[in-house]
């Protein structure tokens, strides 16, 4: 594994490959920052946000969709402009938005959690560019693990209270889920708790096993194919990207395990499988102010 930058991060999360710009985007949640990383030049750029930023997605118009403590926004890296869309949790001030991704339906799917990780007050939402919010699931501890199969017909999701990743049938036309079922249960003592996830072109689900330093690859049939040991323990999310050579990127958070301090970081290595290109937030019907 290669350490991409020597800068320490508090909670590096939501790595996202941008195939148009050939950049990796990710967030540092508690430091209120979005970062871009150019693997070819090694250049790291920081974009300061006004609040906690839990996750990001790509937009069709070149902007990013960002889940801040204050709600869902569109962010333009070229100008620094931040445009508010909607706050799906205006009635839950003790929560913060967490893991989020753009789905095959062109909407931003984002979950939440209690900001102190004490209460089961989280939920999962589907958000459109016009600000329409659908509550998809409620009663979640820490919403995590979002990913979709390459054909967009299966959605995966996990809850920090459980070591089981769930699978759902996904209707791309309506953006609805059905047929909830257990997909894979991790032995968290060995493989870590399932955190953020990504998908490869063969339909394998890649999950970060937090506090065990693992990246776990699970087949569409729910069989563990391999486990990669990272040089850090608090892995938060994998991302499969790269231009010429498929690359695995991994984010992590700062942790103290066995009295050893590890800062959050961004890691990368060449890998033998490509990822599914990121979906983009549909803004076609959005009237910009």
TrEMBL record:
Residues 12-253 form the SMP-30/Gluconolactonase/LRE-like region domain. Gene3D superfamilies: TolB, C-terminal domain. A divalent metal cation binds at residues 13, 144, 195. Binds 1 divalent metal cation per subunit. The keyword Zinc applies. GO terms for molecular function: calcium ion binding; gluconolactonase activity. Substrate binds at residue 98. It holds the Pfam family SGL. GO terms for biological process: L-ascorbic acid biosynthetic process. The keyword Zinc applies. Its cofactor is Zn(2+). Keywords: Metal-binding, Zinc. InterPro entries: 6-blade_b-propeller_TolB-like, SGL, SMP-30. The active site is at 195 (proton donor/acceptor). Belongs to the SMP-30/CGR1 family. PANTHER family: REGUCALCIN. This is SMP-30/gluconolactonase/LRE family protein. It comes from Pseudomonas salomonii.
């Amino acid at each position: 594994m290669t350490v991409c930058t020597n800068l320490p991060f508090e909670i590096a999360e939501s790595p996202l490959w941008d195939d148009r710009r050939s950049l990796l985007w990710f967030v540092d949640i508690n430091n209120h920052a979005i970062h871009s990383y150019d693997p070819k030049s090694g250049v790291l750029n920081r974009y300061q946000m006004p609040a906690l930023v839990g996750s990001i997605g790509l937009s069709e118009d070149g902007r990013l969709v960002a889940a801040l403590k204050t709600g869902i926004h569109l962010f333009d890296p070229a100008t620094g402009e931040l445009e508010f869309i909607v706050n799906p949790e205006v009635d839950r001030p003790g929560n913060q938005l967490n893991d989020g991704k753009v789905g095959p339906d062109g909407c931003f799917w984002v979950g939440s959690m209690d900001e102190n990780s004490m209460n089961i007050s989280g939920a999962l939402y589907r958000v459109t560019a016009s600000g329409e919010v659908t509550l998809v699931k409620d009663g979640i501890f820490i919403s995590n693990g979002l990913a979709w199969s390459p054909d967009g017909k299966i959605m995966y999701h996990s809850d920090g209270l459980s070591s089981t990743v769930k699978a759902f049938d996904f209707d791309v036309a309506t953006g609805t889920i059905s047929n909830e079922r257990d997909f894979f249960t991790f032995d968290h003592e060995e493989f870590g708790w399932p955190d953020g996830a990504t998908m490869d072109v063969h339909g394998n689900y890649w999950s970060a096993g937090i506090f065990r330093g693992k990246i776990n690859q699970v087949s569409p049939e729910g069989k563990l194919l391999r486990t990669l040991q990272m040089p850090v323990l608090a892995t938060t999310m994998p991302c499969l990207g790269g231009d010429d050579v498929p690359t695995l990127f991994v984010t992590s958070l700062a942790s103290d395990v066995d009295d050893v301090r590890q800062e959050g970081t961004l890691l990368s290595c060449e890998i033998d499988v490509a990822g599914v290109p990121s979906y983009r937030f549909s803004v076609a019907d959005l009237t910009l102010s």
